[in-house]
Task: inverse folding
């Protein structure tokens, strides 16, 4: 999955969501390709079956699946 989305050289993070980071629908950031975002969120939802620790962050991402921005994509990645 990391290779599919071009993230094989990314570093590991311990906290999935930064403290005080909020996502909103109208954040003023440029919009992105909906199909790619849906693909990433769908793949992450599949992983939730074996990794329940990431379920909260993925549910936050799935709220914006119809109109994602660059900030939402950054959070999903």
Result:
């Amino acid at each position: 999955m990391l290779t599919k989305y071009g993230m094989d050289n990314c570093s590991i993070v311990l906290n999935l969501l930064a403290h005080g980071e909020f996502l909103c629908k109208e954040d003023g950031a440029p919009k992105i390709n909906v199909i790619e975002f849906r693909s990433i969120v769908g793949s992450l939802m599949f992983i939730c079956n074996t990794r329940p620790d990431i379920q909260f962050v993925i549910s936050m991402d799935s709220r914006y699946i119809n109109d994602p921005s660059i900030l939402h994509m950054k959070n999903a990645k």
